[in-house]
Amino acid sequence: MRNKYPSLFGNSVGGVIGWVFPKLSSSHSSVPAGGSFDPHLDFQILVGVVVALLAVAAALAFLKFSNKPKGCLDPENFRNFKLVKRTQLSHNVAKFTFELPTPASVLGLPIGQHIRCPRGRGHKPYTPTTLDSDIGYSELVIKMYPQGRMSHHFRELRVGDYLAVKGPKGRFRYQPGQVRAFGMLAGGSGIAPMFQVARAILENPKDKTNVHLIYANVTQEDILLKEELEGLAAGYPNHFEVYYVLNQPPEVWNDGVGFVSKDMIQTHCPAAPGPRIQILRCGLPPMNKAMAAHLESLGYTPEMQFQF
Ligand SMILES: Cc1cc2nc3c(=O)[nH]c(=O)nc-3n(C[C@H](O)[C@H](O)[C@H](O)COP(=O)(O)OP(=O)(O)OC[C@H]3O[C@@H](n4cnc5c(N)ncnc54)[C@H](O)[C@@H]3O)c2cc1C
Fold first, then answer.
1. Coil, strand or helix at 237
2. Is 108 in the pocket of ligand 1 (CB under 6 A)?
3. Residue 113 CB less than 6 A away from ligand 1
4. Which uninterrupted H or E stretch holds 114?
5. CATH: 3.50.50.60, 3.40.190.10, 3.90.70.10, 3.40.50.80. Which one for 181-307?
6. Is the CB of residue 298 less than 8 Å from the CB of residue 266?
7. What spacing in Å lies between the alpha carbon of 275 and ligand 1's midpoint?
8. Which value, in Å, is the radius of gyration of the alpha carbons in the chain?
9. Ligand 1 contact via 118 beta carbon (within 6 Å)
10. How would DSSP label each residue in 164-182?
């Protein structure tokens, strides 16, 4: 079909107009041969153009949406993911890289949610260090405890083996800008969900949320993802800060010593009561309990707190 509006909108839009409004497309102009102006016809043309533009916008949006890679998790059934690389990071910590079904797949895990891996009759939560901006693979950093049941499974996992995973799971929902600042209180492997949320915020240039992390461990060697955390602190100095707390610090140590205290929270987390702030907690039960008590006595309401 020949385009009736080539100079204004190009072939495709003119074609759409012709298709949607055949009556209009038979008129070359709203100015009849006699030269008198027809406002009714002009209005019809305007409506036709708006409809055509909306149709093109909808088609482009559909194309963009349908091109977005689909996630490959199932919340109800376990799916198997092949281990393609295993990197030992310390005597009891390793990074596990899993292949996704196709090189273009993404895991499809919303920010702040986790996967679950089966062990015995139950399953354990894990948060990948990768995001959906990492295509074709997903990574877990796992601390393997001597007596841990799931730890034992990971210790035995070799390249070529499969890990059963289901998800997404979790109550946490995140929308960029939903709070002004996050305080994060993490212990040991409880850093995993914090790192994921922090990374998603900081790597999104439109998200101006500030992140204040207090991270507790026994020794310096126990600090997980240290290099990655230092990278975030150096790369986003105005939006991210991390304060480490160690039970057994080395001789030279400038951060916190002992357990995470009320004073440390007051100094390093966004102050309460404050507008649009939230404190996230993830650690062993005794730490979570102690943190909840500190937060309450500092005036943080239950709505301002979330425990992973
Ligand atoms: C949202 C969320 C995400 C998580 N993501 C990760 C992750 O990405 N990587 C990761 O390694 N872990 C992660 N964890 C912790 C993980 O779910 C397990 O708790 C951990 O792997 C231990 O499980 P297990 O079966 O080996 O130990 P269990 O059989 O549950 O425990 C056995 C013994 O191991 C020791 N132990 C267990 N957990 C800890 C601990 N946290 N600190 C100190 N000693 C402990 C204790 O002595 C305990 O008695 C996450 C937890 C949550 C809530």
1. coil
2. no
3. no
4. strand 114-119
5. 3.40.50.80
6. yes
7. 33
8. 27
9. no
10. EEEEEE-S----TTSSSEE
Please give the ipTM for the structure prediction. 0.94
Using the mean position of ligand 1's atoms as its centre, give its distance from the Cα of residue 190 in Å: 8
Q: Is the peptide bond preceding residue 168 cis, with omega within 30 degrees of 0?
A: yes
| Residue 38 CA to ligand 1 centre (angstroms) | 76
CATH of the domain spanning 79-169? 2.40.30.10
Mutate to test the pocket of ligand 1, among 116, 117, 126 (most ligand atoms within 8 A of CB): 126
Q: Domain map of the chain by residue range?
A: 6-67, 79-169, 181-307
Which residues are identified as catalytic? 114, 126-127, 282
Beta bridge partners of 138: 98
- Tokens (6 digits) for 96: 């596990």
95 Cβ inside 6 Å of ligand 1: no
Q: How close is the Cα of 241 to the center of ligand 1, in Å?
A: 25
Q: Does any ligand 1 atom lie closer than 6 A to the CB of residue 142?
A: yes
pLDDT tens-digit profile, the chain (308 residues): 334 333 333 444 444 444 444 444 444 444 445 555 566 767 788 888 888 888 877 766 665 555 667 899 999 999 999 999 999 999 999 999 999 999 999 999 999 999 999 988 889 999 999 999 999 999 999 999 999 999 999 999 999 999 999 999 999 999 999 999 999 999 999 999 999 999 999 999 999 999 999 999 999 999 999 999 999 999 999 999 999 999 999 999 999 999 999 999 999 999 987 789 999 999 999 999 999 999 999 999 999 999 99
